[in-house]
Amino acid sequence: MKFEVNYSTIESVAGPLVVVGKVGTASYNERVRIRLPSGESRLGQVLETTSRHAVVQVFGPTDGINIDKTSVSFLGETFTIGVSEDMLGRIFDGQGRPRDVKSAVSFKEKRDINGEPINPVSRAMPSDFIETGISTIDGMNTLVRGQKLPLFSGSGLSHNELTAQITRQAKVKKSNEGFAVVFAGIGITYDDAEYFITEFRKTGALSRTAAFINLADDPSIERILTPRIALTTAEYLAYERGMHVLVILNDMTNYAEALRELSSAREEVPGRRGYPGYMYTDLASIYERAGVIKGRKGSITQLNVVTMPGDDVTHPIPDLTGYITEGQIFMARDLHNKGIYPEVNPSNSLSRLMSNGIGDGKTREDHSNVKDQLFGAYARAQDAKSLSSIVGAEALSDTDKMFLKLGDEFENRFIKQGFYEDRTIEDTLAIGWDVLSILPESELTRIKPAYIEKYYHGHGKPAAQKIEEKKAEQQDEKPGDKDPSHGSGRQRKATITRRRK
Amino acid sequence: MGSIDKVSGPLVVAGDMLGSNMYDVVKVGKAKLIGEIIQLKGSNAIIQVYEDTTGLRPGEPVETTGKPLSVELGPGLLTSIYDGIQRPLEVLQKKSGAFIGKGMEAPALDRKRKWKFNVEKGVKKGLRVKPGDILGHVQETDIIKHYVMVPLGVDGTIESIKEGHFTIDDVVAKVKSKGASTDVRLMQIRPVRKAAPVKTKFRSSVPLVTGQRVIDTLFPVAKGGTAAIPGPFGSGKTVTQQQLAKWSDADIVVYVGCGERGNEMTEVLTEFPELKDPKSGKPLMQRTLLIANTSNMPVAAREASIYTGITIAEYFRDMGYDVAIMADSTSRWAEAMREISARLEELPGEEGYPAYLPKRLAEYYERSGAVESLNGRKGSITIIGAVSPPGGDISEPVSQGTLRVVKTFWALDASLASARHFPSINWLTSYSLYSGALEQWYKDNVGEEFVLGRAEAMRLLQREAELKDIVQLVGEDALPDPEKVVLDVGRMIREGYLRQIAFDEIDTYTSLKKQNLMLGAILNYRKRADEAVRAGVQFDKIASVKVKADIARLKGVKESDIESAIKKVREDTDREFAALSKEAE
Question: CA separation (Å) from A157 to A251, A254, A332, A337, B490?
Answer without folding.
Answer: 13, 16, 8, 9, 40
